[in-house]
Each structure stands twice: as C-alpha cells, then as structure tokens.
Design a protein that fits this description.
Order of helices and strands: HEHEEHEHHEEEHHEHHEEHEHHEH
CATH class of the largest domain: Alpha Beta
Subcellular location: Secreted
Protein name: Carboxypeptidase M14A
Bound molecules: 2-acetamido-2-deoxy-beta-D-glucopyranose
Radius of gyration: 22 Å
Distance between the termini: 58 Å
InterPro entries: CARBOXYPEPT_ZN_1, Peptidase_M14
CATH superfamily of the largest domain: Zn peptidases
Number of strands: 12
GO molecular function, one term: zinc ion binding
Family: Belongs to the peptidase M14 family.
Largest sheet: 8 strands, mixed
Length: 436
C-alpha cells in the first residue's frame, strides 16, 4: 500500500476519455470475418457484405450471423462446379469480442507527469502497448516534442472537413527544420487501419530516442533528412472508427445527391493524372474505394497536397514519401495506376523495397512481399504514391501494408503493436541508409 502511494503521483494523469456509443462493439456481436475465394465476388455483392480486402484470389468479408448459413450454403453450391478450391478461412469467429479485446487497454495508458525538468526521459515504449484515442495521439506528439525539444516540433498540413487540424511531428538534426531533403510519412489514411498510426509514431519515437542516446545511425539519419510524420491524416474518419463504427475507412464527406452513403477514399482522390481512369477506383459513393466527385476534392487531400507541393518546391526538396496502411505485409512503390509502365527508377525502387522487406524480416522473421503497387496488390488510381512520385517529383515513393496477412486483419491485437514498431523501424533504417 505504501509503495502504491509513493508511486501513484508519477502516473497520475489519466488518458483522455473516449465517447463510444453504447453499441460500439455490440453491433459486431456474432459477426464473422471470413476469407472466401475470389470466385464468389458476385455473391458477396448480392448479400451486400462489408469487405475488408478484395483480391483476385480471395475476399475478406464480414458475415453477420443472420445470413451466415445462407451465405455458406451459396458458397458451397458455387463450389460444386468450381475449378478453384472453395476453402473458407475464419479470421474472426466473433468480431464484437475481438473489438472489445483490442480496445480493452485503451484507457489504461498513463501519461508521464512532467517534473521540473519537463518530460525529459519520460516518454517511453509503454505508449506502444495499447491503441489510443485521438486526443491521446495529439497529446503524445506534444509529449515527444517536450521530451526532445531540440529535434522535434509539431506542425499541421491543413484541416479536415470537420475542422480537425491534420497534425504531425517534424524531426530534424542540428541544422534545424528545413535544412535537409524531406522525408514525408503519412499514416491512417484509412481510418480503420489503427496500427498505421502507432507505427508512424514508432518511427518518430525510435529516431528521437536513438538519436538522443547517441546511436550513430539515428544521428546520421536526422542530420541528413528533415522528417515529417503525420500519424493520422484522416482525423474525422479515425474518430468515427473509435466512437461509432470500428470498420470505417473513408472520410466523413456527406453523401452526394442521389446517394445516402458517406465518405470518400482519400487514397483514390489525389489529383494524379490517373484520377479519371476507369480502373483502380470506384465511381459508386457507397464503395469503399469511392474516388470522390472530382480530383483532389476532399479537404484532407487539399491540405496534404499543398504540404507535399511546398516540400517538393523547397530549396532542400523532397526525397522520400511513405503512406502507411494495413494489412497484408507488403512494401510497395510507384506505380499503382499502371501495371505496364514502370517508374523511371524502377530498378532502384525494387531494390529498396526488397531491402526494406529483408531488413524487417531480420528482426522477428516477419515476411513482407515487395514490388510496384499495381503488380503486388492491385491497380489503384488517384493514389498518394503516384501523386508524390509524378506530381511532386519525390523519387522514392512507397507504401507499406503492415501486419498481418489476414489472421486478424484490421483488428490486430495490441500485443503486436510494439513488435510491429520495432521491425518496421529496421525497414525504415534500411531505406534511410540506402537511398541515393
Ligand atoms: C453446375 O453445372 C451444371 C452443368 O453445367 C449446371 O447445370 C448447374 O446449373 C451448375 N450449378 C451452378 C450452381 O452453377
Ligand atoms: C531505438 O529504437 C528501437 C526501435 O524502436 C528501440 O527498441 C530502442 O529502445 C531504441 N533505443 C534507444 C536507446 O532508445
Ligand atoms: C511549385 O510551385 C509552382 C509555382 O510556385 C507550382 O506551379 C508548381 O505546381 C509547384 N510544384 C509542385 C511540385 O508543387
């Protein structure tokens, strides 16, 4: 008891409360998440099921208890004639239970309390033991700056539709902000990909902590690059995914006339020349990959594009761009819009993406596949990586799909956050050491 009283003041500051709706997790009770063969695509549509991922080979899909038996019978019936095997894998037996478990520790986080020396030495890896509310994410960036005031500052890149500043952290060496070529890293474009915010913050924490500890590699990276990390580029969607619908992906743009569906896919809305093409995005406002009413129409893309353009036009210029997603364990580069036209520096990009995957695997054996987006996952148009590469002229333009390969998908247990941070930092270090 005595020791508790002595320790309590150090950890007294509580995490910011979440405003979760009463049925936040229970609306997913009994919902299964299944990996079904790609051959049942039309069936998934006819049941109106929510998709997590769609490939030629498989579709990851939510199946409510009320239609489960019918749906499985229909899959089996199709299977009777199919050439492809109709194996079905269970990702989540009860999504509601998985969501409760994922969020269980979210409010346990205790901010370090400032001493007379400020926060120096107090921000630690414990942040990476749980997922966090949006308010706590913003506080964490402030806490990082308070802990490492000589090498970090908070910045914003525009404002979301609902007025949330799109907030990031700028890391730099002894030359100060803006004195070296820029590296820009975005996370959680798709709201439900919570691990992306944590890994983006992990890059910031790892670089600052190692730089300050005198690690020669981290010192050389911060002396060579001006690094901008925005863990949550879709704050409206992220807050909605934490308070209303865990599986929300898009912005919260209101439905266009004639539709009742909210949201635009930020990663199909960039004003790259491919925005108008038929392949790699949807014109249906209800689709998860809806590209929006016009190229660059969303508030979020407007702010981010202006920021990237400014970086690209700065004296030091833009060196690397990375848009962090989950899941599938992939590390990819330009292009997304075409599978036939290679990027001008494709050989170099392929070598860097393969090197990232090998460096990451060296830590815990986690395997990532690598290559250009279009060949590695599927065609995407109006995407951020192609915009950063072609429009802003940033030569090293990448996108990871983080853990896992589908056992848990978007609802990745909190116990996998810290290992994801540590292994992905090894990949980032490979890039920073090997870009020309
Ligand atoms: C399976 O193939 C047979 C013979 O071609 C056809 O009559 C039947 O309708 C098919 N069943 C399904 C579910 O496609
Ligand atoms: C350097 O970063 C790694 C990866 O996050 C971390 O595990 C390690 O503790 C850091 N080292 C220091 C001295 O902070
Ligand atoms: C650089 O700035 C010029 C004008 O100031 C603008 O026309 C151009 O689009 C900018 N380039 C990028 C990559 O933003």
């Amino acid at each position: 008891m005595l020791s508790w009283l002595v320790l309590a003041p150090l950890t007294a500051v509580c995490a910011a409360a979440l405003q979760q709706s009463a049925d936040y997790a229970s609306k997913y009770d009994g919902v299964r998440v299944l990996r079904v063969p790609g051959a049942v695509d039309a069936l998934v549509n006819s049941y109106g099921l929510t998709r997590w991922d769609t490939r030629g080979t498989h579709i990851d899909v939510q199946v409510p208890a009320s239609v489960y038996d019918d749906f499985m019978n229909a899959v089996a019936t199709l299977g009777a004639n199919a050439t492809q095997t109709m194996d079905v894998m269970v990702m989540h037996e009860d999504l509601g239970a998985s969501i409760r478990e994922e969020s269980a520790g979210m409010l346990d986080y205790k901010r370090p309390e400032e001493s007379e020396e400020g926060l120096v030495g107090l921000v630690s890896e414990s942040w990476f033991l749980n997922y966090h509310s949006y308010a706590d994410h913003l506080q964490y960036l402030d806490d990082l700056v308070a802990t490492y005031p000589d090498n970090a500052a908070v910045f914003t890149s525009g404002t979301s539709l609902q007025g949330n500043p799109i907030t990031g952290i700028n890391l730099y060496g002894s030359g100060g902000s803006g004195s070296a070529p820029a590296v820009v890293i975005h996370g959680t474009v798709h709201a439900r990909e919570w691990i992306a915010a944590m890994v983006s913050e992990g890059f910031a924490y790892s670089l600052l902590a190692n730089y300050t500890a005198g690690d020669e590699e981290a010192i050389s990276y911060l002396e060579s690059y001006d690094i901008y990390i925005i863990p949550n580029v879709n704050p409206d969607g992220f807050i909605y995914s934490q308070e209303e619908e865990r599986m929300w992906r898009k912005t919260r743009d209101p439905p266009p006339s004639g539709s009742t569906c909210y949201g635009v896919d930020i990663n199909r809305n960039w004003a790259h020349a491919s925005w108008g093409q038929a392949r790699g995005a949807s014109t249906d406002p209800c689709a998860e990959d809806y590209k929006g009413a016009s190229a660059g129409s969303t508030a979020e893309v407007k702010g981010l594009a202006a920021f990237i353009d400014e970086i690209a036009n700065s004296t030091a210029g833009g060196k690397m761009y990375m848009d962090v997603h989950s899941y599938s364990q992939l590390f990819m580069s330009a292009y997304g819009w075409t599978c036939t036209q290679a990027a001008a520096n494709a050989a170099e990009l392929n070598s860097l993406t393969a090197g990232f995957a090998d460096a990451l695997a060296d830590v815990y054996g986690t395997r990532y596949d690598s290559g250009p987006i279009c060949q590695t996952i599927y065609p995407v148009s109006g995407d951020s990586v192609d915009y950063a590469y072609d429009n802003a002229g940033i030569p090293y333009s990448f996108t990871p799909e983080l853990r896992d390969t589908g056992r848990n998908g978007f609802v990745l247990p909190a116990s996998q956050i810290l290992p994801s941070v540590i292994e992905t930092y090894a990949g980032l270090k490979y890039l920073l050491a090997n870009m020309d």
